[in-house]
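Colleagues,

For the teaching module next term, I've prepared a clean inverse folding example: a structure given as tokens, and then the sequence designed for it. I'd like students to try predicting residues themselves before seeing the answer, so please don't circulate the second half yet.
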């Protein structure tokens, strides 16, 4: 059972990380004067990450149906968001300079320059954009895991509760689609420096959300 719990946490984190870290393709594309290709590359990377949802969601449902308790689901949440938090920090520190290799491979390009990050302090990022990212990721990131956690508390209603995942993630997706993505696209077309700042704010926002969610799931594990 412990191995399955670990696998679910890894698969869920892989799905969310492909979308999160893949966003650097937009910077790579914009600074190489092909913002549309950068956007397309991000979409393709994120779509590949959906494969890990196909692996993790049924397995998570199996755990709930098998009678795991809420503390075991909380452990998945702790591992999941800890992996995301650490991975974002490592990406900001070491991964960005190597991203160009992946970009060139996906798009079969040779003459693409690597883009280094403008690592602005977190307090200098666009505050409104940062908050939107934080809210969006908190909702989309917890949608699947949170409803399954609740389902362990009310097993007789688990089928209905699990269906709530779509509602939770929907609100997060709406925030992303209408309040985050348009700003990224406009900046990619018109202001590369602003795009860099938005992307760094995007990564900071998701890192902070992940850290707070780790703390929240630790609280659920200890006190519920």
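(Answer key — instructors only)
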């Amino acid at each position: 059972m412990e191995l399955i719990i670990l696998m679910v946490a890894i698969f869920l984190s892989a799905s969310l990380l492909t979308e999160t870290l893949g966003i650097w393709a937009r910077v790579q594309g914009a600074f190489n004067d092909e913002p549309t290709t950068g956007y397309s590359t991000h979409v393709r990377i994120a779509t590949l990450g959906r494969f890990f949802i196909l692996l993790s969601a049924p397995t998570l449902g199996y755990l709930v149906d098998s009678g795991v308790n809420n503390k075991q689901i909380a452990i998945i949440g702790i591992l999941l968001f800890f992996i995301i938090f650490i991975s974002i920090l490592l990406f900001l520190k070491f991964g960005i300079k190597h991203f160009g290799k992946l970009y060139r491979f996906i798009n079969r390009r040779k003459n693409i320059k690597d883009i280094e990050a403008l690592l602005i302090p977190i307090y200098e990022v666009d505050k409104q954009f940062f908050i939107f990212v934080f809210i969006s990721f908190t909702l989309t990131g917890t949608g699947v895991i949170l409803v399954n956690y609740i389902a362990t508390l009310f097993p007789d209603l688990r089928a209905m509760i699990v269906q709530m995942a779509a509602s939770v993630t929907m609100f997060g997706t709406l925030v992303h689609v209408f309040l985050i993505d348009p700003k990224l696209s406009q900046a990619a077309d018109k202001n590369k420096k602003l795009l860099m700042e938005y992307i760094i704010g995007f990564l900071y926002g998701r890192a902070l959300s992940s850290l707070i969610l780790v703390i929240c799931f630790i609280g659920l594990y200890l006190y519920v």
